[in-house]
Each structure stands twice: as C-alpha cells, then as structure tokens.
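Something for you to look into today, if you have time. I want to see for myself how the chain folds. Leave the record below and I will have a look.
***
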Amino acid sequence: MEFVPKDERVDKVQVDDSEEEPKWYVVHTYSGYENKIKAAIDKVVDNRGMREQILEVRIPTREVVEKKNGKTTVTESNLYPGYLFIRMHMSDDAWYTIRNTQGVTGFVGPGAKPSALSERDLKSMGLAEEPKILDEYAVGDEITVIEGPLEGFTGTIDEVNPQQGKVRVNLSMFGRMTPTELEFSQIHKLKP
C-alpha cells in the first residue's frame, strides 16, 4: 500500500452543482483548534478567489458569565467544540478546498456525501438566517408598545440598533420621560 499525502489525494464527492441557494454544512475539526482552522479556511478561500462559493465560516458561541473572587467576567464559549459551520454552494472544488484544509477531519454526513442542515436544525442551533430588517424605524419616530410589561405606553425613538433588532425609546411614564430598550417586535410605529 502506497502512502499518498493528503493534498495529493483525488478524493471527490458527487454533488449537485446546480443548487441555487447556499446551504449550511457541518465540518468536524480538531477540538480546541476551531479558531485557527476557521482562519485557515478563510485565508484559503480568499487566496483562491472562492468567496462566491464559500460564503461564511462560523463558530457558534455564547456568552458565559463567571463570578470569581467577587468579580464578574463575561467570556465567549464554543457551543459545539470540534465543529465549524460553513455556508456554501456545494461543488467538488469547494468540498475539496474545505476537506483538505489542515485540521479538518471531514464533513458531517452519511458516507462521503456531506449533508446540509435543515431549516429546523438551523433554528435549533442558532444559525437561522437573520430576518431582513427594513429601515422602518428612525430616530424621532413616535411609537406605542404592543407587547410586554410596558404594553400601551407611547414614546419617541432615541436610538435604533438594526443589528440587534432593538431601539432605545423615551417612554412617557407617570408624567416623565423614561429611557427603555425594546425589541422591534415589541413596538408599533404611530402614523404621522
């Protein structure tokens, strides 16, 4: 049996090149090296001009609050150690590029064929596509709260944060203005 270096293997996967929308795939990696492997994939993708095929490499994390010796610290913790999530158009070239990146042990899926994550999987893992937020709210807009404990109060938008889907509103409460942070889903813009 002859040893063939990983980069010279001619492993190919039969994939459908006609898919229109990119899909999320899971890649198994060496645990603890996810950030280095993500950086390596991003570098290879940029160097080979494959950004249209391999759109995004993500390591889902969560904030962890730790209290030690009376001090509170917030750190990022990997939700799925040993895995990367890649949004891509699956093709032989894209598959080969990812599969042959140092530290990647393979795609998750039956046999040699990678399996794309379903919409249900994406939602449960926190990878679902962010809803497109229209610029429907602006500083100075009059709103009413339609959900939550402040339902029924009215106020004026002071700050809009579309990335988080939140606004800071000065609500008229008990005869004075009170700054409050609310989600887009909790407010309704009053007509001018």
Remarks:
- Residues 16-125 form a domain with the Alpha-Beta Plaits fold (CATH 3.30.70.940).
- The radius of gyration is 23 Å.
- The longest strand covers residues 61-68.
- The mean pLDDT is 81.
